Amino acid sequence: MKQFIFLVISCLMIFNSCSNTLEKRVPQKIILSDSDWFFAEKDSLNFLPANVPGSVHMDLLQNQLIEEPYYRNNENELQWIGERDWVYKTSFNVTQELLKHDAVELCFEGLDTYAEVYLNEKHILSADNYFRQWQVNAKEYLVPGENTLQIIFQSSVQVNKDKRRADSVPLFDDYAYSRKPAFHFGWDWGPVFITAGVWRPVYLKAWSDAMITDAHIIQKSVNKNLAELNASISVEASEPLEAILIVEVEEAGIKEQLDVSLTTGLNKLACEFKIENPELWWSHGLGEANLYEVKTSLVSKSDLLDSKETKVGIRDIKLVQNPDELGSSFHFELNGVPVFAKGANYIPQESFQSKVDSADYRRVIQHAIDANMNMIRVWGGGFYEEDYFYDLCDQHGILVWQDFMFACSMYPGETEYLENVKQEAIDNVKRLRNHASLALWCGNNENYIGWRDWRWPGKFPKEDSAKVWNDYLALFEELLPEVIEEYDKGKDYWPSSPKYGWGYPVNSDGDSHLWAVWHAQDPFEVFLEKENIPRFMSEYGFQSLPEMKTIEAFTLPEDRSIDSDVMKNHQKHRIGYPVIDTYLKRDYQWPKDFESCIYISQVLQAKGIKMGIEAHRRAMPFCMGTLYWQLNDCWPVASWSSVDYYNRWKALHYKVRDAYAPVLVSPLEEQENINIYLVSDEQQEQQGQLLTTIFDFQGNVVWESNQDVTVPANTSQKVASFKTNDMLKGHQRNELVCMTKVIVDDQIIANNTLYLESPKDLNLKKAKLSYQIEKLGEDALQITLTTAYLAKDICLSFPELEGFFTDNYFDLIPGETKQIQFRSQALRNTNTPTTINIKSLVDSY
Ligand code: BMA
């Protein structure tokens, strides 16, 4: 949150520096988040210091009235907070000067959620939507000198209950009644913390004459020779005024000027301009994410009235659904190039959003970049993310699949509710539509499939179920697409993710969430079945435990076993641990202790999801996207994430990085053969060598092949097929490994490993690993490893040192030397460690 305050303050500084010459004219912002805030339970007079932006939970914690919410089972003790009403108040000074402006607005960027706002004891606003921005003309209520602001937050739990009780057709989830992040009410990876408070900045905005309220940079047509753009500018004027609108794009040498006659109220201005030979915006892996800065200024005579800067990536993005012989395609096309989407589903980073700062945003996007992703899905049970999140996606070429905030439920359809949603959609579409990264608007998460496949209609009497379905249609098939049509015309809208679950013979169009793995407990191998490979896989996943250091942070030693109450509470899926056990027993030996259990759960998760990713990529161009569930966590928990709450990469994230590499070599045993597939997201075909070797576990070559190979551009191809029996040369399958490498210009551009038996049946032995540790600069170590026997899923750690291994959870074969770096700031203040913890699969049972 800090960066937003910083941003607003810097805007203020810019305004102030101009205001020496243009005193009355330029808009001013007075940040009220900076003043002293106090909070209390409603009807108590015990006001205590509070933080804005923030939440009641964090304020109670800061005042030492509650324990750390994520620790042990504290969640259970804190449910009372969400059931009570809370009051926030502040006072602030307003100058005579400020009140001389034509308008003074009180702006809330986010209120959580049912809020009655009083300015100098006058009721000025009733808010009822977490996702909306609220503005009130405050001038008539403000006085020179001290002013008071008081906000009463009603318990969302109570409001939901009341609304459900009063509903003629009560819906099955209370949370559906409020426009508040669904995950606050608990999810299968998230705790129940029903927050209240001022969750985004609040400020006064004072302006005279005219103010730019919005700059929408519409990309009318884009190709590599020419971009035709339209700056659609909204200006609020307090009186009729002659002015000049200036649109500048310095990098492109553009400066357009337009004389405009403003009328009182809202004015819609348009300024068309062209950029020749634009530097296009590309997603990660395809090219540079070029951005232009478009500056819009409004000038009257020689005075600057207002200005706005917007970063624009020039690109043509669309979702292509063309009929073909197998159904209909479902892929994103960027500047005419079909993009295979590689990414993950993203959830909010915290249960308490005020804990998230700009460094957290940079970190999470960096995890995506480091794992070769080019798309993130912002899932519909959280919230429309901060501007900074999308700025980072713009800068780094991460496409965003953006859900509207509806998940796993049916929602009301009353006029008042729909009007509230409409305003929410307008607020957020207008806020986000300029972002180059924004690729798709999606109506909801799993509401449609729930209704169609999960027997939701049966939850209602027949006549009522018709109403609930009609309400669905009104919201997702009418209201939301209409908002997109009006406010972000041309951007694609997809009513619900997914179109298909599993169990469909051929998913020949749309997207799919495949939960046969995990929820139906089918083996990972179902990922390989043709009927389970959709056009676009927008969800699939498998859980694991976070690493021991993460668990230590929320437990006492006596909690550190799977069946402790604390570990059970940090597992939110009903049968989470038993499901992990089921899969574990299929493929692994039973772990000997809790630490081994953590380790195996990660290795297992990585194995399964890697299988899925490779199957999806091999199926290119039939399948054109894979977004696994889920990238991150909102608290320390056992979950489907690949990076845990403390930013520690699980085994999965390393495997994802490899499986999402631009070129993938994927060996697969199919019937009698081992087939080698090459998948490339590169735009150029490449020539190289394909090396396929069968080793025994002592590192002896049993069989090998070296052939010239063409790495195809932007597609998948089977490039070799070998008879398995010929390759084994009479050896046992459980003591062999097949390693494949692709070499282009003496560089290994892809490699991969295939075992012929399940890990539990492999003839593994205690591996003798040798290592050397050397210091590399101030804050890195180089670790060199060799082994005398095949070591599988090697996990390195320094128990006392926090840091990042450039590779981990890898296999090592005799004859190979592996070099890894370990990066840690802590190395600046410690001696170079001489020992390192190394374990591999064989050590876990
Ligand atoms: C999908 C998601 C989430 C959920 C996940 C794991 O259905 O949309 O609702 O957390 O599965 O169960």
Describe the structure.
The protein is of the alpha+beta class. The protein has five domains: 28-204, Galactose-binding domain-like (Jelly Rolls); 209-312, Immunoglobulin-like; 317-659, Alpha-Beta Barrel (TIM Barrel), CATH 3.20.20; 663-760, Immunoglobulin-like, CATH 2.60.40.10; 769-844, Immunoglobulins (Immunoglobulin-like), CATH 2.60.40. 22% of the residues lie in helices and 35% in strands. Strands 3-2-4-10-7-8 form a six-stranded antiparallel sheet. A six-stranded parallel sheet has the order 31-30-29-28-27-34. A hairpin with a 3-residue loop joins strand 15 (210-222) and strand 16. Helix 9 packs parallel to helix 11 and helix 15 (594-618) runs parallel beside helix 16. It is globular, with a radius of gyration of 29 Å. The relative contact order is 0.07. Bound molecules: beta-D-mannopyranose. Residues 187-189, 407-408, 445-446, 513, 539, 629, 640 line the site of beta-D-mannopyranose. Beta-D-mannopyranose binds next to loops. It catalyses: Hydrolysis of terminal, non-reducing beta-D-mannose residues in beta-D-mannosides. GO terms for molecular function: hydrolase activity. This is Beta-mannosidase B. It is found in: Secreted. It is an enzyme of class 3 (hydrolase).
